[in-house]
User: Fold this.
Amino acid sequence: MELSFGEKIKNLREDLDMNQTELGIAVGMSQRKISYIECGKCEPSIDDIKIFCRFFNVSADFLLGI
Assistant:
């Protein structure tokens, strides 16, 4: 089964041994927004996707499951 966008972000964050607050500071988002994205309560914007791609050095295709 394919992981959701939020699950992928959570796994990437945990691979770097970061908590949500640390990731939020690193990418300029609030901890709450990171939490909402990870649990699927909030859809990421195109700009959010770009930020995550650059930060984690992954493709949008990977994050979006394409």
Observations:
- The mean pLDDT is 96.
- The chain has five helices and no strands.
- The longest helix spans residues 5-15.
- The CA atoms of residues 33 and 42 lie 8 Å apart.
